[in-house]
Amino acid sequence: MPLVPMRQILDEAAKGGYGVGAFNVNNMEQIQAIMQAANDTNSPVIIQASRGALKYSKMIYLKKLMEAAAEEFPHIPVAMHLDHGNSLETCKEAIALGFTSVMMDGSLGEDGKTPNSYEQNVNVTLAVVEYAHPLGVTVEGELGCLGGIEDGHGAGLSDAQVQDHLTNPAQAEDFVAKTGLDALAVAIGTSHGAYKAGRKDPVTGQMLPPVLAMDRIYEIHKRMPKCHMVMHGSSSVPKELVDIINQYGGNMPDTFGIPIEQIQDGIKHGVRKVNVDTDSRLAITGAIRKLFAEKPEKFDPRDYLKPAREAAYDVYVKRMNAFGQAGHAGDYKPITLEDAKALYR
Length: 345
Ligand SMILES: [Zn+2]
Hints:
The protein has 345 residues and is an alpha/beta fold. The chain has one domain: Alpha-Beta Barrel (TIM Barrel), CATH 3.20.20. It has helices at residues 6-16, 28-41, 51-57, 59-72, 88-97, 118-132, 159-164, 169-179, 214-223, 239-247, 260-268, 278-294, 301-323, 337-344, and strands at 20-24, 45-50, 78-85, 101-104, 138-143, 183-186, 199-200, 207-208, 228-231, 271-276. It has an 8-stranded parallel beta barrel, surrounded by 11 helices. Strand 3, helix 5 (88-97) and strand 4 form a beta-alpha-beta unit. The longest helix is centred in the last third of the chain and has 23 residues, at 301-323. The chain is globular. The site of zinc ion has 5 residues, from loops. Residues 84, 150, 192, 232, 275 line the site of zinc ion.
């Protein structure tokens, strides 16, 4: 099966009332773990690469690995998505490489740090839509800003600033109408990474996880029931994974995640794509630390990359079941980019 346009995976998820995990990858082991999990749970899946990932692995290697994934599991619909594209040029490069979907994050300027004006965001997102749709490629845009930094990309806003940059539902309606994008990343108080912008308990002084503005999701879904929403920074940062890292020499205090129940609530209200990166990083790091601690004589990379891949696999299986995509790989006949061109005419 060729890689499918992400739009189809999201449309089908909307029909079935489930969400689809979009998992970030940097290397072969992550891609293999995702595909094995998708196969074993019979799930459609989105594999995504950030600009940082493409730089680390070199674009051509990731492209070939993703093609191998689609070839090894021809019955699994897989979309290959660019995460946080920062310009029309970057999106064009990804499309030329064969990505079936791109994110144009026009919420920030090309530096990936300074928030753009609303007009700038509309203009750059529309430019990407006008380039991508005639090629059948899906476009995700973002309105509002997230906290935290992801591969150097993110406004790095404080908790208070995050609250000032939540997605405005009325503006979201205007944004979708003006750009014609396929999926909208919403800012509801989530941050990238394991150290999410938390809040201080006024009594104990302890750090607590962020409160998400779920009402923004409800409101956007009410205004635009057909709009596919995307939740970024949606790792759950399970305590047991952080504990393994800390138990074997790591140092990760004050980590927060987004509870699975909140993601599931979002899925009930129009969230179709759920971005998860940190959880697989935690699983991989914990497995490697444990192996090194318990068997310090080992030095063959396979000795620690194999358990790392297995630990990541467990995370993907859990997320695929929790988001509801499990069991849906065979529901539909995948279309090609060529077929998708007709959707946009
Ligand atoms: Zn993101």
